[in-house]
């Protein structure tokens, strides 16, 4: 693997780590999903591909932080499934993280569209 490919891979991993909580909360907004269903949804998107070994500890932390609630549901003869949903605190955290995400994207888009030195706006007297 070339050095630039290794750097890109590291950058992608860090980006994914930084956005996984937001992605999980967003996936659970206005719906309830069981663990494997959530995993498959995240794996279907290129920027949120994760493993079970990453997802379930993160869900446990979100539950401890009272951002998601989980309950076991028996469906027919199949084994029970643990369903996850946002709590009111989780909904507020999603709103806050979404605001931060959108501001970050706006700022980065500005920098990408405006390369080179830009005069700084002076504030005050």
The end-to-end span amounts to 54 Å
Query: Helicity, in percent?
Result: 55-70%
Strand order of the largest sheet: 1-3-2
Q: What is the global morphology? A: extended
Q: From the alpha-carbon coordinates, what is the Rg to the nearest angstrom?
A: 19 Å
How would you explain this protein's 3D organization?
The protein is mainly alpha-helical. 58% of the residues lie in helices and 11% in strands. The chain has helices at 3-27, 35-43, 52-64, 88-113, and strands at residues 33-34, 68-73, 81-86. The protein has a three-stranded antiparallel sheet with strand order 1-3-2. It is extended and about 65 Å long. The model has no long low-confidence stretch (mean pLDDT 91).
Task: Give a short summary of the structure.
The chain is mainly α and 125 residues long. The chain is 58% helix and 11% strand.
């Amino acid at each position: 693997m070339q050095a630039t490919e290794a750097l890109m891979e590291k950058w992608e991993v860090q980006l994914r780590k930084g956005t996984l909580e937001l992605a999980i909360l967003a996936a659970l907004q206005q719906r309830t999903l069981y663990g494997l269903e959530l995993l498959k949804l995240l794996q279907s998107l290129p920027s949120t591909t994760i493993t079970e070994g990453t997802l379930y500890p993160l869900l446990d932390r979100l539950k401890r932080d009272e951002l998601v609630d989980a309950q076991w549901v028996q469906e027919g003869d199949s084994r029970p499934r643990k369903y996850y949903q946002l709590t009111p605190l989780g909904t507020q955290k999603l709103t806050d993280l979404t605001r931060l995400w959108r501001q970050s994207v706006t700022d980065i888009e500005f920098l990408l569209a405006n390369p080179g030195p830009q005069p700084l706006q002076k504030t005050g007297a």
